[in-house]
């Protein structure tokens, strides 16, 4: 009899990734499909289409389905024994939505095994290009939702966040207002995570509490849909969403964006950041800060200033002193979420705006600026750096020690990493095991006792706190100058 294993999936922005672990939590298989490289027929850039208005950002639904077909075929070709799988779980880029056309449930349930899934489902989507988390095109819908709820703060109190352009409820409202016939032909709306689960289930999977918290539709305290929010977005929306369920229900994020998660027991929803239902502990919550200009911004500066080489990028970063001689930069290729700003903005040590930096200064300004923004906005949420503070860095950039050193210095805290950059996959695999025992009140902490401890990667450079404290204050003050102003922003095309 084959030894049991558990699969973890990650339907991320640029790739579909999978990890298999055994009962000792050891990784026994790992693979991925890179959308741009492996599926060039869809002609995406970074896994997405950025439309001409620079605000609308979508991804083709069938690309995700074809990627699943491709990765399953790769697993089969490698000799992977599917009969040993006991459970699977997955993660999907938050906020993205998939629109199933009327009658699609029967096609999904009866898809013939001899056909690739993307061929069976090619006519199932009323919206062929799904709005995703990078989209910023729903400002008017956000204003309407906040007005319907009595303001931004009342909405945040109910749903955990003020109205954000990328949040699913506002995306649904835009589709309903601009294409009512398309909405009328839609029988089910999935998030990317529940869409992925549906492909494995062969029927529509429900939305879980945690991912549902990123829609501006879920009452995070009662964990039910808010009728007022639903009605403000589109008619008949509750029946199209289905009932939300706990995150551990048994049904069978330093990545593209940078995200900062804080575990909290008594949240106070505010106008910045998000409060989400905790997928691991139903009695607690998570505070989330999301920064849209993450790895794609780092990759562009790497290409321009380091000949596309991470080694050269790291050397340039090391060649400049911490604090960058007082030079600070804000780098937003697309409209940022926190703060709401766009464009490239550089300031010298005298706070004068300059048009360019030397390449090595540009690289340090980017990395220091990204991490200073994270600390500043985390502290606005009430987070405090204490002597016991530890940072766990995950995602692709977590393997770059020079970048991690800047993170450690800015936060004045040690940084730990795990062995795989595909942390969302690995966490999903752990959740697959947890899903089988959660109903017996077994905690995820108990499940992962055998998992390798995170490894210490870097510690703060002596004197870093004294160096960065005044820079953090300057950065926060300069940030107010670059808050979105269409007349003055230097938009990068």
Note the beta-strand portion.
15-25%
Percent range of helical residues: 25-40%
Q: Major sheet, described briefly?
A: 4 strands, mixed
Could you give the order of strands across the largest sheet?
A: 3-2-1-6
Q: Structural class of the secondary elements?
A: alpha+beta
Q: Report how far apart the termini are.
A: 57 Å
Assembly form of the protein: single chain
Low-confidence stretches: 486-493
Query: What is the number of helical segments per DSSP (H or I, 4+ residues)?
Result: 19
Mean pLDDT: 90
* Total DSSP E strands: 20
Shape: globular
Global Rg: 22 Å
Keyphrases for this structure?
about 500 residues, alpha+beta, 4-stranded mixed sheet, 3-stranded antiparallel sheet, globular, disordered C terminus
What does this structure look like?
The chain contains 19 helices and 20 strands. With 493 residues, it is of the alpha+beta class. 48% of the residues are buried.
In short:
By secondary structure, this protein is α+β, with helices and mostly antiparallel strands. Helix content is 37%, strand content 19%.
């Amino acid at each position: 009899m084959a030894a049991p294993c558990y699969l973890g999936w990650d339907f991320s922005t640029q790739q579909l990734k999978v990890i298999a672990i055994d009962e000792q939590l050891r990784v026994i298989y790992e693979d991925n499909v890179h959308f741009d490289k492996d599926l060039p027929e869809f002609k995406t850039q970074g896994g997405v289409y950025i439309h001409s208005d620079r605000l609308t950002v979508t991804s083709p639904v069938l690309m995700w389905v074809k990627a699943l077909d491709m990765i399953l075929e790769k697993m089969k070709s490698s000799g992977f024994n599917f009969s040993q799988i006991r459970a699977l779980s997955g993660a999907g880029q938050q906020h993205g939505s998939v629109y199933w056309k009327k009658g699609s449930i029967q096609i999904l349930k009866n898809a013939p095994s001899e056909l690739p899934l993307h061929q069976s489902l090619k006519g199932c989507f009323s919206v062929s290009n799904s709005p995703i988390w990078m989209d910023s095109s729903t400002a008017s819908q956000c204003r309407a939702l906040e007005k319907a709820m009595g303001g931004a703060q009342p909405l945040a109190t109910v749903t955990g966040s003020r109205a954000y352009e990328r949040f699913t409820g506002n995306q649904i409202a835009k589709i309903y207002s601009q294409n009512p016939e398309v909405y009328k032909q839609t029988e089910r709306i999935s998030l990317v995570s529940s869409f992925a689960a549906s492909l494995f289930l062969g029927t529509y999977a429900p939305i879980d509490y945690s991912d549902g918290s990123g829609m501006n539709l879920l009452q995070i305290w009662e964990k039910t849909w808010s009728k007022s929010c639903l009605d403000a977005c589109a008619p008949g929306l509750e029946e199209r969403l289905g009932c939300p369920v706990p995150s551990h229900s048994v049904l069978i994020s330093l990545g593209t964006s940078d995200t900062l998660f804080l575990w909290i027991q008594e949240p106070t929803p505010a106008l910045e950041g998000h409060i989400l239902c905790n997928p691991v502990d139903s009695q607690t919550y998570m505070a989330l800060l999301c920064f849209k200009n993450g790895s794609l911004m780092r990759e562009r500066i790497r290409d321009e200033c380091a000949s596309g080489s991470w080694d050269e990028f790291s050397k340039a970063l090391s060649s400049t002193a911490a604090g960058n001689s007082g030079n600070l930069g804000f780098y937003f290729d697309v409209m940022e979420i926190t703060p709401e700003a766009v464009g490239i903005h550089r300031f010298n040590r005298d706070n004068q705006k300059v048009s360019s930096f030397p390449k090595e200064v540009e690289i340090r300004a980017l990395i220091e600026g990204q991490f200073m923004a994270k600390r500043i906005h985390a502290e606005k949420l009430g987070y405090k750096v204490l002597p016991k503070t530890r940072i766990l860095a995950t995602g692709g950039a977590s393997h770059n020690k020079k970048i991690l050193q800047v993170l450690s210095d800015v936060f004045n805290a040690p940084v730990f990493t795990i062995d795989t950059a595909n942390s969302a996959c690995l966490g999903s695999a752990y959740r697959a095991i947890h899903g089988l025992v959660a109903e017996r009140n077994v905690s995820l902490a108990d499940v992962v006792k055998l998992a390798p401890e995170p490894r210490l990667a870097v510690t703060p450079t002596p004197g870093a706190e004294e160096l960065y404290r005044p820079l953090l204050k300057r950065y926060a003050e300069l940030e107010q100058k670059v808050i979105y102003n269409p007349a003055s922003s230097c938009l990068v095309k």
